[in-house]
Amino acid sequence: MNKKLIVDLGERSYPIHIGSGILETVGDACKSVGLDGKCLIVSDENVAPLYAKRVFQALETAGFYPTLEVLPAGEPTKCHEKLIHLYSKAAEINLDRGHFMIALGGGVIGDLTGYAAASWLRGVRFVQMPTSLLAMVDSSVGGKTGVNIAEGKNLVGAFHQPELVLMDLETLKTLPKREFAAGMAEVVKYGPIWDADFFQGLEETDEIFPTIGKIVARCCEIKAEVVRQDEREGGLRGILNFGHTLAHAIENVAGYGEYLHGEAVAIGLVYAARLSSRLKGLSSDDSARIEKTLANLGIPVAMPNLAWSDLRVAMQNDKKTRDGLVKYVLIDRLGHAEVGCEIPEEILEEVWHETASR
Ligand code: NAD
Ligand code: GLY
Predict the structure, then answer these.
(1) Ligand 1 within 6 A of CB of 111
(2) Which of 18, 14, 350 is nearest to 167 (CA)?
(3) pLDDT digit string (tens) for 116-154?
(4) How much is the pLDDT for 151?
(5) CATH number reported for the structural domain that contains residue 36 in this entry
(6) Which amino acids are annotated catalytic?
(7) What is the pLDDT of residues 250-298, one digit of tens each?
(8) Could you tell me if 63 and 192 lie in one domain?
(9) Closest residue to atom 39 of ligand 1, CA basis
(10) Within its chain, how far is the Cα of 236 from the centroid?
């Protein structure tokens, strides 16, 4: 399966190439969007040994001058220290405004490199080459870039759209099972917020891998459409944060890296679905279907052993907070979400305890 989609953002529009053997096409693909000269390829220590050489060679063959920088794998790399390290590297190789960066890896590498590209020399161009399922279906598309700080996830960052997104589905074959399952949480999310038929398809699928190309493409179509309508999250784009208020708090309180982002999202989806039943009329059957589908896909949905009071404080730091009030995303039925929902304190806590003790 080879497919090309467009994220339609006027002069910031860009293509997404999805298929097999895409890594080797990076040189020509970069040329086709007018990139030129030097590039800083950023990857991590798991992904680089597997794929960086092929990407490096394809770029050299096409006449580019690549430099590879390999960072430690995992969430703690999405931090200011590594960002400054990338600036130093860019300075060392004289990466100027006509040059570009490439993120080769999962969402951590994509978010960090994207932010380095957004801020180096006040902005250079960059290419996303996601190799994890989560990065393919979510983080590599839409231009959100950034790093974490001690006070919360993704609190520092910028909107900076890539020039090009290249997804080689073959790379998913080396992705650890746990990471694949975590990525499926973001896949499942698209059902409740946008596409009930897609959700039903996931519910009924026995084996995901044979249809992964179609699944990735459908998620990218949905994300591209949401971003087209609301690039800077004035409203609609907020639906992509369904389940994420609690998820980000779990990651923060447990310590970045303890829970994979997708694992925290899965727990957040269960919680958000139950809140939706309580407040928005989502049937409890549909709420249970979300939970069951996540579990069937091998995603752990047990509530973490963390204190509600700590989570609640962390939730307050969520980016959706306005004037001290946390705004939540809820669904009133499968396929339809609402942003900006306010939830009484006692319901937040009650549903947490109810979900934790199920
Ligand atoms: P990750 O980047 O840590 O990658 C997961 C793990 O899989 C890492 O150990 C990585 O080395 C390894 N890996 C990746 N591809 C591999 C492959 N093909 N073969 C073998 N190993 C491979 O994490 P992630 O789950 O990809 O992304 C999570 C991050 O994305 C979080 O920081 C989250 O906040 C962010 N995110 C951002 C957005 C956005 O819109 N920018 C959206 C969702 C999530
Ligand atoms: N993953 C949330 C967003 O891109 O808006």
Answers:
(1) yes
(2) 18
(3) 999 999 999 999 999 999 999 999 999 999 999 987 778
(4) 79
(5) 3.40.50.1970
(6) 122, 144, 186, 223, 233, 237, 241, 244, 248, 261
(7) 998 998 778 999 999 999 999 999 999 999 999 999 999 999 999 999 9
(8) no
(9) 139
(10) 17
Choose the residue to mutate in 165, 226, 240 for probing ligand 2, maximizing ligand atoms within 8 Å of C-beta: 240
Enter the tokens of residue 158.
């910028």
- For the residues of 221-264, what is the DSSP string, one character each? HHHHHHHHH-TT-SSGGGGGGTTHHHHHHHHHHH-TTSS-HHHH
pLDDT tens digit sequence for 59-91: 999 999 999 999 999 989 999 999 999 999 999
State the pTM of this model: 0.96
Confidence bin at 157 (pLDDT 50/70/90): very high
Give ligand 2 pocket residues (Cβ under 6 A): 138, 142, 144, 237, 240-241
- Point out the ligand nearest to the CA of residue 256: 1
Domain count, the chain: 2
Assign residue 310 the CATH number of its domain.
1.20.1090.10
Structural domain including 8 reads: 3-173
Are 43 and 71 within 8 A, CB to CB? yes
- Cβ–ligand 1 distance for 134 under 6 Å, the answer yes
Q: Which ligand is nearest to the CA of 227?
A: 2
